[in-house]
Specification:
By secondary structure, the chain is an alpha/beta fold. It is about 40% helix and about 20% strand. It is built from 6 helices and 6 strands. A 3-stranded mixed β-sheet has the order 1-3-2, covered by helices on one side. A hairpin with a 4-residue loop joins strand 5 (about 95-100) and strand 6. Helix 2 packs across helix 3 and helix 3 crosses helix 5 (about 150-155). It is elongated, with a radius of gyration of 20 Å. About 25% of the residues are buried. Bound molecules: zinc ion. The site of zinc ion has 6 residues, from loops.
């Protein structure tokens, strides 16, 4: 990623960044030290990379299409999904589902995993539309998908927080448990 830094004497404190035609343009106060700025810029770069990846995933493999197929195959088409998309802000959770509004968000990292793992994550989140908690009834639905166990192992190995998946089953929060 190309980076252009504009130092300004007028700027006092804040550093800002935006993408202009594939170039990351960073505006910074002229008084800011070089090393501090380098640190900030690499943070910005990471953030914009993630966003770009997420946008590409949403464009190239729209989750609504996959979810439509899974809804047919595993849920008798009974689910009403309002929106389902990749997001880039989620770090420890692979997905979340707001069962009240029918909005599902999936970490962009899942988009880089094998399709059978992605499908597990989708089925997991979609099952929350029927069962908000990680109850037995919930897992009965999820395990209609034969690769669930393997996919959970895969996710565990990649460092996603699975404790929340196992535990905290009593909270029916909108996006808390996955
Ligand atoms: Zn869950």
């Amino acid at each position: 990623m190309e980076v252009k830094i504009i130092r300004s004497r007028k700027r006092r404190r804040t550093v800002s960044a935006k993408m202009v035609n594939d170039c990351l343009v960073v505006s910074a106060p002229s008084s800011l030290s070089e090393s501090y700025l380098t640190e900030i810029v690499s943070g910005f770069k990471l953030k914009f990379e993630k966003k770009r990846l997420k946008d590409e995933l949403n464009k190239n493999q729209p989750l609504s299409e996959v979810a439509g197929l899974l809804n047919e195959k595993y849920f008798n088409n009974q689910l009403k999904i309002n929106s389902i998309e990749y997001v880039s802000g989620q770090n420890s959770k692979y997905g979340c589902c707001n069962y009240r509004t029918g909005h599902i968000r999936v970490s962009h990292k899942v988009g880089l995993m094998p399709a059978w793992v992605r499908d597990y994550v989708l089925i997991h989140e979609m099952a929350h539309l029927l069962e908000p908690n990680h109850s037995k009834a919930f897992w009965d639905i999820v395990y209609r998908y034969k690769l669930s166990e393997r996919a959970r192992g895969f996710l565990m190995a990649t460092g996603f927080n699975m404790e929340q998946e196992e535990g905290g089953g009593n909270e029916s929060s909108d996006c808390g448990n996955c």
